[in-house]
Specification:
By secondary structure, the chain is α+β, with helices and mostly antiparallel strands. 48% of the residues lie in helices and 19% in strands. It is globular, with a radius of gyration of 20 Å.
Amino acid sequence: MLPDQSPIPRLNIQSAEAHYQHRASMAPHYHDEACLVLMLSGLAAHTEGRHMTELRPGTVVYLPPAQRHGDVFGPRRARCIVTKIDPLWIHRLGPDFDGLTPRVTRDGHLYALGVAIHQEIEKPDDLSGLIVEGSLLELFGRWQRDRRRRAQCVPAWLERAETILVDSFRESISLQDLSRSVGVHPVRMAREFRRVYGVTAGAYVRKLRIDFVAERLRDPGKATYATLTDLALDAGFSSHAHMTFAFKRITGFTPSEFRKLHGPHHRNESR
């Protein structure tokens, strides 16, 4: 541990490897602590509100305290490292760190930092406290710097373009239409959109549609559909088959499988 005179408070942290059976499912829940999750093996569909993200080996997930989330695991057993961090320690670092939002990344350096933190906690010595705190500060610091750079480097026209996609993702919109709406060349639009959001505009729209479908499969009370084809068309897909292909590509499940595992009548397992 750091000496008492350090400006950084003593760190209360726990880390353990978790194992999940194939097709295991956890209802939306939250933790009092901040959580750093490293996906070691297997697949999972991770949801936070309306947003769903595919977790593959090498994925790093950061969840602030009280962040509501749920998970559905894939057709094989999954393993991950779950590190729980005292929120008071994060709060005392200052508002920049206390305000970190949920984060999902496949950054190899951050993954290695997470693994090193877990190893130090599992087999500690007199320097482990210093190493763990230093690693966490580096990890958080990289995320905060990335957020600042992104805020500084996102042009207003690109923010408008992203808003258009969010508002009209169920409609048919081309890159040319989007570029014309904000007054930039399609080549610039494609380049800057990928730089800032990490995916193409098309992939971004597809993810919004998948989130829309997943939300209605979990809670059909939001809208009633006679068939999955009706849901596919309402989400903006051209057919049931198109929706199924895209949904399985992102989540590892077909819409029918996801509804059985994560729907309102499924008895979920707890963490």
